[in-house]
Structure formats: C-alpha cells, structure tokens
Amino acid sequence: MKHGWVSFIQAARPHRPSHRxxxxxAIDPVALTMLAVNRLGPATLRTATNGRAWTVTVPDARTAxxxxxxxxxxxxxxxxxxxxxxxxxxxxTQRTRGIxxxxx
Length: 104
Prior knowledge:
rod-shaped; 3 helices; two-stranded parallel sheet; disordered C terminus; mainly alpha
C-alpha cells in the first residue's frame, strides 16, 4: 500500500524537465552598432551618390531583421535607402584577401 501512495504522490507532483532549456543569447549592442556602421553606412552612401542598388550581407536572420527595420526608418528621410538590400549569408564575414592574408 505504501508503494501505491508513493507512486500516486510522485505522479501528482509537478515535474521539472529533464533537460535545461538555454535562453537565446542576446545581441551585443556594441557589435551590432559596429556592424551597422561598417555595412549600412557605405551602402547608403553609395546608393545616394550613384543611384544604383547595393546588397549588404549579414551573418544571421535576426540581424537582417534589425537592419531592414533601420532601413525602413531611414527611408523616411532618404528615398535612395530603398535601393539597399539586406541578404543573410552563411559564409564568414571576414575578408581572406589583402595584407592580413599575405597579399600586398
């Protein structure tokens, strides 16, 4: 009878999940700002001066959503910002050519 009560109480008790659910890491605001300045700044300048479309690559979909929202706000004052497209890339964003890679 004791075994029956113990089973009943254990079944009625709320159980915790056996695995931990890790929270989604937050975006570093400093890194995001640096990425936006380095990517969106030159792109918006090129579209404003040349009037041609320009593509900006970002590392993930969340960053792309943030960049698109920023471009939507910037389009209110500069119509040429409509020409900037944001594309998610799976490749590393660092350049492999140039002085760092041994080319002069």
